[in-house]
Amino acid sequence: xxxxxxxxxxxxxxxxxxxxxxxxxxxxxxxxxxxxxxxxxxxxxxxxxxxxxxxxxxxxxxxxxxxxxxxxxxxxxxxxxxxxxxxxxxxxxxxxxxxxxxxxxxxxxxxxxxxxxxxxxxxxxxxxxxxxxxxxxxxxxxxxxxxxxxxxxxxxxxxxxxxxxxxxxxxxxxxxxxxxxxxxxxxxxxxxxxxxxxxxxxxxxxxxxxxxxxxxxxxxxxxxxxxxxxxxxxxxxxxxxxxxxxxxxxxxxxxxxxxxxxxxxxxxxxxxxxxxxxxxxxxxxxxxxxxxxxxxxxxxxxxxxxxxxxxxxxxxxxxxxxxxxxxxxxxxxxxxxxxxxxxxxxxxxxxxxxxxxxxxxxxxxxxxxxxxxxxxxxxxxxxxxxxxxxxxxxxxxxxxxxxxxxxxxxxxxxxxxxxxxxxxxxxxxxxxxxxxxxxxxxxxxxxxxxxxxxxxxxxxxxxxxxxxxxxxxxxxxxxxxxxxxxxxxxxxxxxxxxxxxxxxxxxxxxxxxxxxxxxxxxxxxxxxxxxxxxxxxxxxxxxxxxxxxxxxxxxxxxxxxxxxxxxxxxxxxxxxxxxxxxxxxxxxxxxxxxxxxxxxxxxxxxxxxxxxxxxxxxxxxxxxxxxxx
Amino acid sequence: xxxxxxxxxxxxxxxxxxxxxxxxxxxxxxxxxxxxxxxxxxxxxxxxxxxxxxxxxxxxxxxxxxxxxxxxxxxxxxxxxxxxxxxxxxxxxxxxxxxxxxxxxxxxxxxxxxxxxxxxxxxxxxxxxxxxxxxxxxxxxxxxxxxxxxxxxxxxxxxxxxxxxxxxxxxxxxxxxxxxxxxxxxxxxxxxxxxxxxxxxxxxxxxxxxxxxxxxxxxxxxxxxxxxxxxxxxxxxxxxxxxxxxxxxxxxxxxxxxxxxxxxxxxxxxxxxxxxxxxxxxxxxxxxxxxxxxxxxxxxxxxxxxxxxxxxxxxxxxxxxxxxxxxxxxxxxxxxxxxxxxxxxxxxxxxxxxxxxxxxxxxxxxxxxxxxxxxxxxxxxxxxxxxxxxxxxxxxxxxxxxxxxxxxxxxxxxxxxxxxxxxxxxxxxxxxxxxxxxxxxxxxxxxxxxxxxxxxxxxxxxxxxxxxxxxxxxxxxxxxxx
Lengths: 629, 482
Hints:
The complex is a heterodimer of chains A (629) and B (482).
Chain A: H1 2-21, H2 28-51, E1 58-68, E2 71-79, H3 81-104, H4 111-130, H5 134-152, H6 159-190, H7 195-202, H8 210-226, H9 235-238, H10 244-253, H11 258-265, H12 267-271, H13 274-296, H14 301-321, H15 325-352, H16 370-384, H17 390-405, H18 407-432, H19 451-466, H20 481-496, H21 506-531, H22 543-549, H23 554-596, H24 608-628
Antiparallel strand pairs in A: 1-2
Chain B: H1 2-18, H2 23-50, E1 58-61, E2 69-72, H3 76-94, H4 104-123, H5 127-148, H6 153-181, H7 190-194, H8 200-217, H9 226-233, H10 236-268, H11 275-289, H12 294-314, H13 318-349, H14 360-363, H15 365-378, H16 385-400, H17 402-427, H18 443-461, H19 464-481
Antiparallel strand pairs in B: 1-2
Helix pairs in contact in B: 1-2, 1-4, 2-3, 2-4, 3-4, 3-10, 3-13, 3-19, 4-5, 4-10, 5-6, 5-10, 6-8, 6-9, 8-10, 9-10, 9-12, 10-12, 10-13, 10-19, 11-12, 11-17, 12-13, 12-16, 12-17, 13-15, 13-16, 13-18, 13-19, 15-17, 15-18, 16-17, 16-18
């Protein structure tokens, strides 16, 4: 069994090594089998692990990675229901996206390089979720950041893309420093990095202690960077520079959810730090609202989805902040299905329009791209939360918990749901409905994507449609399968949670559900009226809308506050401190030294050979005299 | 005897090379001798592990009446540094193949003389002998930079020499002073020097003398201004020797001499001296961001990285000091790798100016891949060598003072910033007139980089063996502190 589990991450690594070393020699056909093939086997192995799993977690170590006296960091895995769930999502959705990429990247010169990076990404992502301690998790944590960097800047001839890649890496690293310091504090507090040891000890600690708040806050900084929350979210929209399958896999389904996974994994620590939970809730809420608002006014098909992703991640953090760990993981899963679907659908549209991403120039693609349209529709209905699609159940679970925790939070969350419905239907209608607004629609030979791309769309559409059935709430007569599956992992955290959402009466729950549903449908209708057969291109004069259209000028503010001052400080240090201050003192002292010791001048006399020769002879003589005399 | 051979062989090679007139012969002989030396160090390593981490001691009385003896030994610390030296020297010599070098015999001879100096420094257990080898290593470094260097070399190398030499003199004074504070009959033996009896105010002066000497050598902010110019003007083998090996002399000296003798100063001054390297991390990183010359950028990044190592040594706890040892090895390997890459780039484009380059990755994917992996080591990505050391140093610093650790930790953000930006401007984007004709690496050129990448990953993934050596050496130092 341990060998099977070890193979899950090792196979993608092997794929990376083969594709990386044989970069030029391997034909595309082989790469197209090797890249997705390794992931498929990993997925099958993950399924075998699932079927053999008996609800009791087990950990096993491979070797000691870093070990020094008290610091012991074994390379070890922990297999429990949470990591199995993540493994299945990563390898399952990952495999589908890999298959899609065969078609999407077929004309690209960097085909092999693409699959090498994608396989490496899957490897690191699996390490992240399978690790049994924070340090090994950090390997995956930084590793996925590296792959994200490599894949955002995949078309590296374009310096704009490279800037986006660099920005993503740097912003992630800001978060990583928080993670690292949080990890150190965990170690100094609990004398271990291992989850089991840490959580076991944490359980006995009192809630709200300063250490616990500090640990969770620092870790949360890491999550904010990786999962693109305020204030470190601006890299994710830029990350759309990468090929669309990358956006689907890394920047929607898996990597950006690592922060959610990490907080859920550390649930025991978080429930003991109510302050952090509150900060997390506020951050999540602000992020959700702000990015949903931005998404409404975006005109790039991928940017809309990017802001939507940030907003949905906010949902997950909101769920975590009220202690709804299963809800967060449930939404993480359904979001992986429908957002990957939406991104791949967008990719199919972009592919058909030969690179066009501006939805103002689309429209009427329903008939030309029927498979893409129908699957995209499923994705839209799912994210908007219409029953019985997956998004309905996962959102309902979160909203139910939020309602039980605080009414104002619930109102805002419902507002974001309405905004989500609006921007998604706007996107859907502008792209597929009405007339084509392209520059010269007749000459464009719009064609549906090949089946290597549409079959993945259909698979994901099925998942996005039925995925919610895994966790049908009790009031609908469901068994809450996922909840039961994850229950052992979150048992302690749920038990210790002081801010436990109180139980909501079934009747109230039903009525809430209906209200939300009606509001969402209303927004879909408004979106229809606002978009179909209207000219979307006029710039607004409303100050607030212009503010939102320009994404609240956050990038500009960061540039003004951080980037430019850093460069200016750099120049100033060089000119004033380095050259005019420190070096002058040194040179001044140096002149004194020269005057002090005239002898040094002989070193420049040029007779190096002789000088050296005598020196060596001298040393050798000393040695010989000592040995032989 | 192995210890003795390790010092003696480079001296022999240096002498022998003087009589070789032909360039080809000089080159091949030099490379062969460097490999033999590496082989001997591997033998020493085997012996080291076989005899359960005992010192491999070699001792001769010399000037016994003054208490000076040729006492050399190899403990965990020495072993690591010896391995680093013997690993890097053949690589450095290999990179000179195919280059036009004036007076090749003298050039290679100087490299071996420097290696002998380094070996002596890393294995000396007698204060005076340490000092002698310390100077012995300086002189060849100076000549290599001054005679084979580039623009403005005379002025720059003279500054380098004068600066480091004056630092060394301070150390000499300190060692002699310590000698007179050792129990009767005075001795320079390390055990005696460790046991010297100092009054608190004397401690501070001795500490300062050591600290300044070592800080100049590393260099630590604000004693670093000789370094960027020297790295830039020195020929590539010289920059590699300076950045990869000579900078380690200062750090090694701190662990071997400064800390065991004057650690109490660090205890009583409450981190006052740690502020310098920690400031240096931020300061040098910020300056590195805007550098246009590749070698100069590496020079500043080196000040930042080694500042972290120095801070790790001075917080006086086991994790940080062991991390510092690992990081010294890693930094030496990575900086030599980076200089090799820059050398290849300059050989192809005739420039090291970042703003003139671009798009090299299109023409040279292999070069791009090697550059990326070594760069990742340098910015401490997990599973590369840079991470293990930095992780332990920051963990140790965190225990000492959380604020220091947080500020020093900024290096993981800054290093990513200046390194990736540099990589982007040099390797990515479109080609231009300068980089149009760049060719990819040949197999011959890849050999040293493969060796380096293997070490980057080996230390990153399986650091166990290296940590054992560090643990043994550092354990003794920490034992003295307690």
